[in-house]
Hints:
The protein is mainly beta and 515 residues long. 9% of the residues lie in helices and 43% in strands. The longest helix has 20 residues, at 2-21.
Amino acid sequence: MKRIIALVLAFTFITALLWTVSPLKAVYAEEYRNGFSLVPDEYDSTGISTDTHFVLKTVNKYSLEQITQMLRLLGDIPLKITQNNANEFIVIPEKELEQNSLYTFVITTPDNEQISWTFQTQRNFTVLGTLPANRSNFVPVNSGIEIYFSHKNFGDIEKYFEISPKVEGRFETNGYAAVFIPKKLEPGTIYTVTVKKGLPLKDTGHKLEKDYVFAFETEPESNTEKEYKGSLYFRYSVMEFSTKDAPLIPIDIYLTDHNATKAVVKTAIYRFDNSDEFVNAVKAMYEKPYWSYSTYDETHVPVDNLAKVSEFEQSFDLTKWQEHYISVPEPLPKGFYLIQSTSNGLTAQTLVQSTDISAYYIESDTKTLFWVNNLKTGKPVESAKITVNGESKTYTTDSSGIAFFDTVFTNPEDTDLNYLSYYTVRKNDDELVLINPRYKILDDVYYSEENYWRYFQTDRTLYKPDDTVMFWGFLRNRNDNTAPSEVTVEISGEVTGLIIKLDSYTISFPVSKNL
């Protein structure tokens, strides 16, 4: 008996899921149910329009007042009903219906008989997901590329599909899915796929409203002969030093040969011709996808076209744990440099600026503040020019070395790759490039100042089932210094949300044994 009940429940769940994802094709013919017919005015194969009105027809004659009392839309949505003729009424929901939802109209007759109609609203034609998933890696090179849509009967996907680097292949479609079967995917390669806006949904007016872009990385080429020797890397990708100080650059060294007592590191210094070349090198480092395995493991800035200005060698004691630093023998002249160190077949790179100006900046969603100083004199730098991302517009510091301007956001939308945002500060022959780490992270939000000053603290981090949790918090708007009238604190488990008054608050509650 239990098995039968389980099967019935499973069938009911699957049926409900399929109805939500794949509703039956709607055909709204004029069909009377116990003397009543209700038909939407605007609909297609995907459902009814969210702003449609309905035509109610009756076999018997009813007054407008009777119909108003008899007809209701579940969900407490008020209806505006007008009489068209003796047996026809126009029914208009007073608020727009939500997409991809079910709405039920119910008529209760004078004999207390109920007649109901349920309608599915349309939803936008969209891409629901892909396989490989966005930002996935180690994708097999013999994998197909599957795209899942919200509706069936979409147009010719081949005209709206783009893959970079370009790959030859063919398409197959099956219901809600389009599958691109590539002839060959290269190992260790990032592929970016775009499903272009405008892809039509057949027999409807719906089209894909915007490009859908996703990226994945194929598995690296198998190389059983490649031996893992350890790691060599600089702590920072970009550093700056004054022209009077010899750079001291922290580096981490790990060798798998545990018998090695020292590491010999050879370092070469290369010079860029100008700041544009330096910025391009920074981009090559910063704009690599964080989820990529191959690009982080193997990609370095090419040095073939750079001028080598010096090279030297250092030995590091590996018999004890200690900090390691690449010690450049002498200060570097003003300019932009690439430092490349090698040891035991391992390579590490960092970018260095040698300049006599320093700058501090802080930005919010609305304003940016700069403070520029001279490293030699220790005084503020007046009339320094600040540009954002190499654009032509400049912002100038005052006599205190301060510039204050509206925050500039130039990050392109809907990009999955990190996009370098940077400032350039110039005064005469001094130049400084500052990297702004406002890059995309896992949930596609930016590192930036939020709207509220906030603080939250509990009295401890671990509780027993019969303990009382006490916590304190502070919340105030950064812009107008106001505090919200109430705050909702959500706690996972059985405890429901707590409503808390005032901008600073203290509260306690018992710990549930089921938390």
